[in-house]
Amino acid sequence: MFCSHQHGPTTVIDAFIEHGADVHAQSGDLSTALHLAVAFQSTDVAIALEKAGAMIHVRDAAGRDVLDVALDLPEMTELLIRNITKQPTWIANEQVTQCVCCQSVFGIAVRKHHCRHCGRIICHKCSGNQISLPKFGIDDVSRVCDTCFEVLQRKDGSSERK
């Protein structure tokens, strides 16, 4: 899907999706169209895929999620986080053995936490902030990863640091 029109109008992506293309489909290396759009810095395509439901926390064969691919692209990271429109489906706890942000190994002393905004599994050190998520219908403050917090608190100023 991504290769069909990586730098052209997103209407091609929209047409694929309208005709049943799976935005969650993974290639042989387990990357998704969203991984590729981010890697090629194709912002419009990445946003179109995300708005169609592509999840940023899906990992490729190298263990990288979409935010890992965007690590050196702060503008892309911000766009990806701001354009999350659907409450994420959480990754199963059994699928993750270490924090996706700092790579601390989970165990008795290091517990797993889900970011309520992006769905990634992080440790306590990497999720020390809470913010309200009204776009998901959540008015109470919720635990979010530090990456999401940095973007969301800049976006609307309604941050609540704990």
UniProtKB/TrEMBL annotation:
This is FYVE-type domain-containing protein. InterPro entries: Ankyrin_rpt, Ankyrin_rpt-contain_sf, HGS/VPS27, Znf_FYVE, Znf_FYVE-rel, Znf_FYVE_PHD, Znf_RING/FYVE/PHD. One of its GO terms (molecular function) is ubiquitin binding. GO terms for biological process: endocytic recycling; receptor internalization. The lineage of its organism: Eukaryota, Sar, Stramenopiles, Oomycota, Peronosporomycetes. The keyword Flavoprotein does not apply. ANK repeats lie at residues 29-61. The keyword Metal-binding applies. PANTHER family: HEPATOCYTE GROWTH FACTOR-REGULATED TYROSINE KINASE SUBSTRATE. It comes from Albugo candida. Pfam families: Ank_4 (PF13637), FYVE (PF01363). Residues 93-153 form the FYVE-type domain. GO terms for cellular component: early endosome. Keywords: ANK repeat, Metal-binding, Zinc, Zinc-finger.
